[in-house]
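Input.
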Amino acid sequence: MNQFFSETLRKIRDEKGLSRQELADKMYVTRSTVTRWETGIRLPDAVMIARLSEVLGTDINLLLSAAAQSDEYPNVIMVDDRKLILTGGLPILEEVFPNATVTGFTDAAEAVEYAKVNRVALAFLDIELRDISGLEVCRELLKINPRTNVVYLTAYIGYAFDAWSTGASGFMLKPITPEGVREQLQNLRYPFRTGGEGS
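Output.
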């Protein structure tokens, strides 16, 4: 199943104000075909994706990118403005998520831009970033994809109350450990396959 493509298609169709039947009529397919695309049961081929791009008036690269992404290989990001924290944390995330694409960012704006073109399954966010609060970065990521799981990283327990109000899944004190990350996986709002132990 490809939930990335199905959710992208459903969102674009809704934004265009089309019903499934109306999209099916414009695509010259049956309503059940559109339903299969939007439930992730079937993925349209390249010809159909090109036709969808024309009918919906959307960038074909957006649809192709969504089709290429797999639930089996999630994107996991870590945002911290201290390189030393990233250097120590990224190998731990790669250990826990061996099938994931793990990417680190010292710049929160770059992380948000990355999330606009790469569906992020899980984001580890430092709360005290240089130019912006990690709480605000969380809100931005959830605007892009409400199913992104967010775990806050901080050295200060006092931020916990504010962190919970943003829709995050968890909260970790630095430094992160493989065991600590695995514990957080039990609390994710939207669980996904990690490819690691117990996945």
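Residues 75-185 form a domain with the Rossmann fold fold (CATH 3.40.50.2300).
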